[in-house]
Amino acid sequence: MGTTYTIKLIGENINTDNIQDSIASILDHINHQMSTYIDTSRISIFNKSDINDSTRVGNDFIHILNKSIYYNNITNGAFDITIKPLVELWGFGATGTPDSIPTDKEIDSLLNYIGIDNITVNKNYLHKMSNVNADFSAIAKGHAVDKISSYLTKVDIPNHMVEIGGEIKVSGFNSDGNSWHIGIQNPNENDISPFINIFLTDKGMATSGNYRNYYTVNGKKYAHIISPITGKPIENNILSVTVISDDCLDADALATALMVMNINQGLKLIENLEDTEVLYTLENNKILYSSGFKSFIH
Fold it and tell me: Rounded to two decimals, what is the model's pTM?
């Protein structure tokens, strides 16, 4: 997944070698379903397929696709896994930074292929309705975190913390018998220390932000989160969004969508979702959060 992971287990007589081998197997399986960097993955085969072709995929793939459709619907298109061509166009994919800023004509031509409704599902087959490409990078890490957490619970390790590239799921309690203590990174470019400490039990948490992955052309900053609606990098005063939910997959998808959405619309959405809270960090050291977020700050 192009990142690191950390797993903390609390318990006695844990065979960490067996656990590590099983976790590696889980991650390999997810990668071979969903990695756009593996040519033989299911998602790569789908992306290379012709219009009207069908691609067989596994149950995990279908689960994430259905979740992606759900979040596309409730965010009015702010979350869309078909954003990949625009991400590549703007230089945030495998091709690297472009020689020049894309023109409106180039953007508009790709917007014709953006839209999750260009993919249909029949049992375990994906059907491509147009020259659409999918990318699960805004949701797959959260799914992997959840899968590993579920596995650890099944092998009777209920107290654990799983983190992949900053996306987190905690279960039970830490070594002191307390809630897990998680720091949210300061979005200030020159400060890597946590600026808010969160206390979690049996929750997933994900943060999305524009403060690390960007480039500058002629004095203007272009950040890596692309709006599937405008086809351009988002321009707002949001530095980062942290979402807490029961599952990391949901937090992961929402954190990305809320970076794209208007803040008022985003807060309204979160207030209407059960067991879900959000923290916005804005420019000028300002923060906003949903009504229940404060309960996680001690």
Answer: 0.93
